[in-house]
């Protein structure tokens, strides 16, 4: 999630800024980007590995063949889990007006990924009459990408946020609602009610979601399915596999195989 090339983004006026720039990059080790923002909208995707994006309101997981949309001026941080091959498209702010005004995960298309990789080879060169049609294809594809539910909204109440941060860090913690309420100094009924109003999920559903998103990270790091299920506190391996399949449409083993096949794509 490193920033875009410096020179094309140093323009003083909107008209001087490029319509869009595509960048493809690979990291042999984990990639970490501290909190930052930029004037351009950004769509960040992965060929191989898993990317986690964080903002003040939530976390988004970006597995292979997915991408996360980051609106202009949105403060965000990011990190990959293990080796990572990815790509980014940076879009002029004025072009972002009909795109989401908040971060959202999207399932990408083969057409978009191939077009982005082609454009990345131009190294930020101006969009002439030959290159401009491909840029329009990329923009049209981005506008029609289906949203995916891979986000983990965070509560605003400081007491609930303390609990959410603890569970995001250790989703295997199996303390019940009453124990968490006591730990955070909040009434159980208040915790239950406000978790729904501030995140859209019950406390139990939110914790289950945190565990599933962490399981994607662990699977990407080649952790065996059995270890993932047990380390995250599931009652049985079959229960984890069934919930994973119901949520993501594939089994954990199929997810790993699919990610591996995508990861064999050469970026350059």
Automatic annotation (TrEMBL):
Molecular function terms, GO-annotated: DNA-binding transcription factor activity; sequence-specific DNA binding
Highest taxon of the lineage: Bacteria
Stored Gene3D superfamilies: Homeodomain-like
Keyword Methyltransferase: no
UniProt entry keywords in alphabetical sequence: Activator, DNA-binding, Repressor, Transcription, Transcription regulation
UniProt name for this protein: AraC family transcriptional regulator
Organism classification: Bacteria, Pseudomonadati, Pseudomonadota, Alphaproteobacteria, Hyphomicrobiales
